[in-house]
Amino acid sequence: MHYRKREVVQVRPGIAYDCDVLVVGGGIIGLSTAYAITRAVPGTRVTVLEKEAGPARHQTGRNSGVIHSGIYYRPGSLKARYAVRGAAEMVKFCAEYGIEHAVTGKLIVATERAELPRLHTLVQRGRENGIPVRELGPAQISEYEPQVRGLAAIHVGTTGVCDFAGVARQLARESGAEIRYGARVVRVDRRPERGVAVLTSSGDVVRGRVLVNCAGLYCDEVARLTGDEPGMRIVPFRGEYYELARPELVRGLVYPVPDPAFPFLGVHLTRGIDSGVHVGPGAVPALAREGYGWGTVRPGEMAGTVAWPGAWRMAGRHWRYGAGEIRRSVSKRAFLAEVRRLLPAATRDDLVRAGAGVRAQAVLRDGTLVDDFLIREGARAVHVLNAPSPAATASLPIGREVARRTLAALGAP
User: What are phi and psi of 186, to 5 degrees?
Assistant: First the structure.
């Protein structure tokens, strides 16, 4: 996206920088990046711009709170490496700062014979990723979860739960960064030989040497404002949750065997740090990037999604899957049927509507859903372009990687 010079706030020679690094986005990735930068090079001046009134208001604060083990992800991928490493670091971070957490372990349960080969693949993948995995038969499933039924399962001991919003707040405190809330980015002027200047919605101009784009649901838009074409677009998917009215039916975390064609993990049961049991999420197209319900519609954002060729190609390829998700969204009976595959004792009255989250899913021009974390660099800029789940789990190593690239850019002539 380009603007005429008179419309853009500009970096001008002779004007002092407000900071060395300007981070856009106050979710867990942006705050982890700020934390990693100041830890790596103390004295580096970091400013974080967050459009909300506080940190972690979107993906970070609206997920199920699971510390993922890394078992699902292709060995050698960023997701696999960072999730395995990040899970251990997240538990240590929470323990060090007194943030609520628990290492609970989880079951991944096959309920149909067709799922057994995929379950075996997960066993192999887990072992390749260095994750301790125990294979279970039906009787052993009942030892862990008396109300859960399945043909076979695996137990993953390193999975846990924590308060990711609490982690984000602690990262903000420990980073020493200046954090400006209510500061939505409106325009960006980048001069590769000098740095960047950002105009915020409050009318402030903030100048930095390097910009780091951790804008989550709006990361592609911020990349284009900076003058970089990201080669993808964010297509938002809403994850809808219920709470279990009888939480005693579930002791820990119970997951279905995921469909390998999709980066979503299916409807699962999660006992959180509050001892409540979250049921979900589904995965339906959102009608706005912050569309936490069917009633939230932003025509301009919808038009941007519809205009992206990848969105149409994705829809044409996966419409059957999408139709099933929409059906479960609008029909509690259909959602209950999905839950009862794992938990036969669940009834309609057990499902109580809870809050929703939105996944910022990067989609390429050819309709491919980006499966791994995606970090790209431009002149005086680093863009985090795909960081949905397990990004909260992996946030500490992701932050270090973004910090490494940022500090390299900061040292560039």
Answer: -105, -45
